[in-house]
Amino acid sequence: MTETKHNEVGAINSVPKELHIDGQWRPGASTFAVEDPSTAKVLCRVADADADQGVEALDAADRAQGEWAATPPRERAEILRRAFSIMTEETERLALIMTLEMGKPLTESRGEVAYAAEFFRWFSEEAVRIDGGYMTSPVGGSRVLVARQPVGPCVFITPWNFPLAMGTRKIGPAMAAGCTSVIKPASQTPLSTLALAEILERAGAPAGVVNVVTTSTSGEVMGGLISDPRSRKLSFTGSTPVGKKLLEQASRTVMRTSMELGGNAPFLVFEDADLDAAVDGVMQAKMRNIGQACTAANRILVQRPIATEFAERLRERLAALTVGRGVTDEAVVGPLIDAEAVDKVDSLVRDAISRGATLELGGRAHDGDGHFYEPTLLTGVPTEAEITSTEIFGPVAALSEFDTEAEGIASANDTPFGLVGYVYTTDLARGIRVSEALETGMVGLNQGVVSNAAAPFGGVKESGLGREGGFAGIEEYLETKYIGLGLA
What we know:
Elements: H1 8-13, E1 19-21, E2 24-26, E3 30-36, E4 41-48, H2 51-70, H3 73-89, H4 91-102, H5 106-126, E5 133-136, E6 142-150, E7 154-157, H6 165-177, E8 181-184, H7 191-203, E9 210-212, H8 218-227, E10 233-237, H9 240-251, E11 256-260, E12 265-269, H10 275-287, E13 297-303, H11 304-319, H12 339-354, E14 358-361, E15 376-379, E16 396-402, H13 405-413, E17 417-418, E18 420-424, H14 428-437, E19 442-445, E20 460-461, E21 464-465, E22 478-486
Helix pairs in contact: 2-8, 3-5, 3-6, 3-7, 4-5, 5-6, 10-11
């Protein structure tokens, strides 16, 4: 497998390795290692903040809040627009950084840079469209004035699987609304966020508006920030168990929260579906980001008359995928994030087989360096298999069959999660009917990717609260104030 010559050392060296607090780069209390998951070797070491430094970051955000809220919306918008332009111009550098610390192939990393930058462009346009209201009181004699104001300092906790986009999806609307923030990236992938902070600095973000705290002790550092009454908004992307704990902590000060949590996405393929389109869609929904996405198709439910043909076509597509380092020319499937992730995926596959599923392809980890797992296809997966109720977060397609539309919908909804569902059918009435019946916050109807900066991203049930992106995204960072105007 050939590797295109990339300046990997140069890309890593281009990223600051310190904490970004109040417009300054500062050392941490210690450092921790960042590894390349494709080699299991250390890329670099970055600052490891302690609890006191977390508070210093919140101090900076709190000091900057008043002036940033008073900054004209057009000025806030121009900073975001400049950041969008810089990210676009530096796509190759940012993509290489992401591939090295997270593992996804460069093609996907480039796509994420474009997706991440789009949140800055979208919310630069939304910054100047924050409105309010004015009306005559129904009983007369007074007026109702409605104003929209920033919620205040925000605390952001982002995951490792989309290290750049999950940052811009939170920072973009917060800055547009006039909110300052403290962001803590995942310890596995801090470099993308540190690069983002440096770009925002170059784009003109004032000191204290965006502060980045990297740490290996998230609970210790972020616990103090969440309990601090100066923090008025918490946005978290990650697992449902951690989200529930954070909600408990946030309740103590009645913080506003946005939670984008776990998923268990059903992918429904009806007998009248365009099979070529459905296979393309499931490849996108399952294999994007090496299957390490909350939107990944976790349960592929195929109507019985077409199940065999669909499985054969999917097996052929999966077998053609090349596994390798993301910087290689041929690699389509990169590594999982760490050894624990490989063990989890393999355990789910073994459990499914022990309960009656058929292994059609793959089903093993690669030998040697890095955290690789083969593209895997399971058919006849029984409902009692753990893989039907647990996020796989790996390149494993788990197929089950259903007979009637009602049965398919019931199977799809048989989960406490409700982030996204996918439906493939050529019957428009059925497509709308099933989409409305799915208990999810999002539906991909004849499309395998739903992520879009212009659309409201989020789930229902145990998949989360609130929405990110779209027109709804900025609402999460605005308070509504009513002013009664007495005219007597």
